[in-house]
Amino acid sequence: MRFARFVLVVQAVIMIAFSLAYWLRPYEMANLNGMLLMETASVSHMRVYYGGLQLGMALFLLWAIREPERARAALVMLVITMLALAAGRLGSLWLDGGQLIGFDLASLVYRFCAALLAAGALLAMRERAAAEAPAARVEPPTRRLVDEPPQPFRLGDVRPEPSESSESVAQPFRRGDPAP
């Protein structure tokens, strides 16, 4: 779980840093990506989609650190997201004829490394959970209502009828009977 937490914290810090950069310096970040923001709406979209989405994902990763089930879900999300972004970069390189190989290559390396680290952490969590599962199972002791061994049923055995004069004998519950 330590390795998984480490991966989640590192990715959350990177996403928060990029989120703040896109929020505070949208023109500079767009220029680094080869974009030119001409309208106020473009700046707003840059802040929302590049800044806000990364911040939301980072907060999810930080929230998921506390419990193993949530950490597994966050690692799966991280693997899928990073592989989808890497596939988008590869598709972009193919469609553009490899013109931005330097920029796209650095992004590809980062995305693949992040996906591999998250997948490795996910596998380590599964292996550890599988190793701990048999040791964690403790069967609760079974308690019987009667301490004597069970008696075999014989044909012709009937339940003893309670005597009508005795008030202490519990009567069977019938639906609709008022409570005594």
TrEMBL record:
Flavoprotein in keyword set: no
InterPro entries to which the protein is assigned, alphabetical: DUF4345
Pfam families according to UniProt: DUF4345
Keywords: Membrane, Transmembrane, Transmembrane helix
Residues covered by region (Disordered): 134-180
Transmembrane feature ranges: 7-24, 44-63, 75-95, 101-124
Name of this chain's protein: DUF4345 domain-containing protein
